[in-house]
Amino acid sequence: MPLTGRGRIVGYILLGLAVLCVVGPFLWILVNSLKHQIDIFTGAWRFTPTLANYSEVLFSRRSDFAGNVLNSAIVATASTALVLVVGTLAAYSLYRFEWARWISGAFLGWTLVFHMIPVLTLVGPWYIAFRQLGWYDTLGGLVLAHVTMNLPMTVWLMMAFFREIPPELDEAALIDGCRPLQVFRLIALPLAAPGLIAAGILAFIFSWNDFAIALNLTTRDTATVPVAIARFAQQYEVLHSQMAAAAVISTLPALLLMAFGQRFIIQGLTLGSVK
Amino acid sequence: MRQSIVVALNRTFKHWSLLPAVVLFVALTIFPIANLVRMSVSTIEFAEGQARWTFTPAHNFSLLLADTVLWPAAVNTLVFVVVAVAVEMALGLGLALLVARLGRGKGLARTIMVLPILVPAVAIGSMWKLMYNYDFGVFNQALTALGMAPVNWLGSTSVALASVILVDIWHWVPFVFLVLFAAVEGVPNDVIEAARIDGATDAQIVRRIMIPLLKPALAIALIFRSILAFKTFDEVFLLTSGGPGTSTELVSVHLYKVFFEENQLGYGALLSLALIAAIVAFLAVSRGALAAGRSA
Amino acid sequence: MKSIQRGLCALAAVALLGIGAAGSAGAQQPFADVGKQPPITILINSSPWYAGFEKTVELYEKQTGNKVKLDATPYGGMLEKARNAVRGAKSSYDLINLDTQWTIEFYEGGFLVPYKEVDPAFDLPKEVLTYGESGYWNADKRFRSAQGGKLMAWSPNGNVLLYVYRDDLFKAAGLAPPKTWEDVLAACAKLQDPPKMYGSVMRGERGNGIRFDWMYFMLGKGAAVVRDPAGGDYTVTINSPQAKAALDLYLDVAKRCGPPNAGSLGQGDLIQLISTGKAAAGMVVSAAWNNFDDATKSAVVGKVQAVPIPRPADGKPAALLGNWNMAIPKNIPDAQRKAALAFSRWFLTAGAQRVYAEAGAIPVRDDTFRSDLAQNPKYRWMGAYLEMQKYASQELGYAEGAQVEQILGLRLNQALIGEMNSAKALNAAAKEIEELFKKNNRRTGGLTPLPE
Q1: What's the pLDDT tens digit per position in C35-87?
Q2: Of A13, A14, A32, A117, which to mutate for an interface test with B (greatest number of B Cβ within 10 Å)?
Q3: Is B54 within a domain?
Q4: Do C335 and C38 form a contact (C-beta atoms < 8 A)?
Q5: pTM of the predicted model, to two decimals?
Q6: Is this complex scored with an ipTM above 0.85?
Q7: What is the CATH number for B186?
Q8: Is residue B15 a part of any domain in this protein?
Q9: Which residues of C touch A244 (CB under 8 A)?
Q10: Which of C387, C419, C418 is nearest to C310 (CA)?
């Protein structure tokens, strides 16, 4: 039901305003990343742009930033893929099959309460457990931690999207002789694709941006982007120009990975779909 | 052989599909939660490198009652959550409906909307602090250029909380948008077309058809956004650390100071359980309110 | 091929350094020979001096062949990682760097091993600055003091506040560098011109910021939080008439010299105000000095000078320290402890400190400060820095320190933003601090409250 005529013009104007509000501060980071600190301090509008911050962040002798971005890419991608598989299966199971009420209630309640725990009080026990399991300071350990962190939202989101599917659809398919797995794969998943993408984007972003867990479970070699960027917030001052450059650099691979991931999900679902 | 595995997989689908999530949760969340509960009724002291736990539930509870900062923090938190979440839900829904009705540029709009949640919180906090700066910030530059008096965004007790909420809104509208946009995309087109042919206006379609269909997604957005809002920490800590005075002190910021900076593990754990209880109560009340609003 | 070349180059550099040092210092050995040691890992914060630390560590690796791994961690994550390390079964770090206000927790908790327990022959060289003896712990008195205390940590970095002022503006206005806060107020009468120029700025933000800066006034007026913590007398004296006079003076300076948002200023804001030329003077941390002389960060290059923090006209000079403390966790094997101590011994030598300073860090040896380095105009702040060391003290050196800081940080800030008057703020703080000590079974008490 696309807008037409005057409604469309008003729509685009409203959207333009919204985009401006959203992008404005981001553009401001971008501009700051091209400034020396003194120009950031004075809020100057006229300044000589410099790429020094980028080369400082990427190429200075003590910089690990490229490595940090790679760690983040690995952890965010792997944990998103895993949480989508584990979470979607669990959501589908709870939605589709007759689980005893106390089981589904306990599981969903447990995940929600877990989501409410302030991370601060969580990371200490995790540090101890992960060291004993030998997962401390490994990317795999961080992946598992992020899967757990993102599981509540993924399960709840996917359940909401499965609920939107008219129940007649898969009942009909079952009667037509489809097996349960086929119904899941060929009917439920493609219909819930927008939800899968939203859940994937959110899981990816929360993993990409997690500071508290990554700080506690990694050291210098396994550190991720948020930990690296926090290094620019020092005891007495923030290195604004380097932080801005690092923030800009870190968004690009994340956007690329998310675009790629979306395409991957859509293609994977339409292949062999009966829709 | 292969055939029989497929049959087995299908027959046990119900169970193995839930299993990985349960295993992960049992393995990784029971210990931290049990530990938190145990801490909340204990006093923990360290001597000779070892932790010494003593069972002191009454003492911990008395700390809760005597905490002079907790009351203003609770009030601020409630204001923060209600205002921020309400505005974010409204803006997020509006944007989702708007973008869904555009013919082109949906993908681009979604990509752009992601930007605020993609930047690490520490960068967002420091950046907004610069923008709010009294002498050089972009907001006061604009006000001065328009001939108005500069505003003390973060240094005035009457403005600081609003400034902090504004950052939260900017940061989290995209979250609501993403969830609701996906749900709007999932609404079958023929339903809306049919209503249109029956002569329904735009407003009616949104109110009578879209909102009821979006109910599950709206509930999810509200639940998860509220939980995160109650836990908001990084930006507020970086922008004001709860000051000036207690004007932007949130329970989560207070918790950080108690549990982390002051190393009061027992009382801090109790505080975080109190925060969880508050979230549960808030969700229950808002669910009741929404249900009552619908039946009225 | 390339690596061989680099190796040769490194060898040559070491040889040259060795010769150069031997030539200048005569028979004195500038570096320590610490022998072969197992690899160690150091938990250290990202900071302006990190690059210098890393360079010095690289030289250590080249000279000794011993390996050192640095886990450069954001300041905001240091305490968490340090706690994780010492509370676990085995620490993943062999040296941990602790901000001064965190040290008590680690000393009291018995998480660290005293240096003399690792090697009875180890002593800090007498030239090494002790920064108010924050590295010593007297377990009987539960107080940081070299008197009967054991050496638990040495400082890789120490900061005091300096009074930084615009030499050009002061000269143009016919003002001498201020010695007292009354001089500062007189200068502000001439220089204060908001919003174009603020006369003198200092931290007013809630928490550590206002607590730390105000304590210079408190000590200057001869007031104290607690009567005699080293002697076990925790009578709260923060609402004494002297403390009120100190707070009133602080508020006076904030109102007559500061910006309208004085109650939210942090160290970063001060650096911004001074380096943009918006503030004519201010009390800032010595670590910020390099900013003011760096053209990419400052509009006042070469125009600022540093003097010790002014005292009240009727008071005495005072200095509070913010230093880092390098300590060995208890939960590591003996060989690791020895390796950590070996590195410490080497790092504190005159030779290593020279390299450290030349790589841009602030050295921690008195003789490094007094060497020809001091002649370099780049280091023109060093005189004030050393002068301040004479009055240096550590405050809140007891287990409740972090909680006392929260209480004071809030009440002082409320006085600054006008939510309560100075007497009421101090009475409230005194009451809360006394209750805190009572709960912990300290010998405590209070003064008659100030008239509000």
Answers
A1: 999 999 999 999 888 989 999 999 999 999 999 999 999 999 999 999 999 99
A2: A117
A3: no
A4: yes
A5: 0.92
A6: yes
A7: 1.10.3720.10
A8: no
A9: none
A10: C387
Touching check for A258 and chain B: CB below 8 Å? yes
Q: Is B14 on the interface with A (CB under 8 A)?
A: yes
d(Cα C328, Cα B64) in Å, to the nearest integer? 36
Asked whether A255 and A247 are in contact (CB, 8 A), the reply is no
The chain C residue lying nearest A60, using CA atoms, is C51
Tell me the C-alpha distance between C424 and C427, whole Å. Answer: 5
DSSP assignment of chain A, as one string?
----HHHHHHHHHHHHHHHHHHHHHHHHHHHHTTS-HHHHHHT-SS-----HHHHHHHHSTT--HHHHHHHHHHHHHHHHHHHHHHHHHHHHHHHHS---HHHHHHHHHHHHHHHHS-THHHHHHHHHHHHHHT-TT-HHHHHHHHHHHHHHHHHHHHHHHHHHS-HHHHHHHHHTT--HHHHIIIIIHHHTHHHHHHHHHHHHHHHHH--HHHHHH--GGG--HHHHHHTTB-SS-B-HHHHHHHHHHHHHHHHHHHHHHHHHHHHHHHTT---
CATH value at residue A139: 1.10.3720.10
In chain B, % of residues over pLDDT 90: 70
Distance from CA of A199 to the nearest CA of B (A): 8
- Omega cis (within 30) before C114: no
**Total domains in the fold of chain B:** 1
Four-residue CA torsion sign, C194, C196, C198, C203: positive
A107·B21 Cβ contact <8 A: yes
Dihedrals phi, psi of A41, to nearest 5 degrees: -55, -45
Total structural domains within chain A: 1
Q: Is residue A263 part of a domain?
A: yes
Q: Is A194 on the interface with C (CB under 8 A)?
A: no
Q: Domains, chain C, ranges and CATH?
A: 31-159+322-380 (3.40.190.10), 161-320+395-445 (3.40.190.10)
* Segment C347-365, tens digit of pLDDT: 999 999 999 988 888 899 9
Token pair, residue A204, equals 């990816």
Q: Find the closest chain C residue to A40 by CA distance.
A: C297
What is the extent of the structural domain holding B100? 69-295
Residue at A185 is within a domain: yes
- The boundaries of the domain holding residue A239 are 63-270
Q: Could you tell me if B22 lies within 8 Å of chain A, comparing CB atoms?
A: yes
Partners of A237 on chain C (C-beta within 8 Å) are 267-268, 271, 288, 291
C401 shares contact with chain B (CB less than 8 Å): no
CB contacts, 8 Å: B56 with chain C: none
Q: Which of B135, B243, B246 sits opposite C205 (nearest CB)?
A: B243
C340: exposed, middle or buried (C-beta count within 10 Å: 0-12, 13-18, 19+)? buried
C-alpha to C-alpha distance for C139 and C148, rounded to whole angstroms: 9
- A100 part of a folded domain: yes
Q: Which residue of B has its CA nearest to C196?
A: B135
Compute, in degrees rounded to 10, the torsion defined by CA atoms C47, C52, C57, C63.
180
In a domain, A48, yes or no: no
Secondary structure (3-state) at C92: coil
> What's residue C15's pLDDT?
38
Using CB atoms and an 8 Å cut-off, which of residues 46-65 of chain A contact chain B?
none
Q: CA-to-CA distance for C336 and C68, rounded, in angstroms?
A: 11
pLDDT, mean of residues B219-247: 94
CB-CB under 8 Å, B25 with A114: yes
Side chain identity, residue B117: I
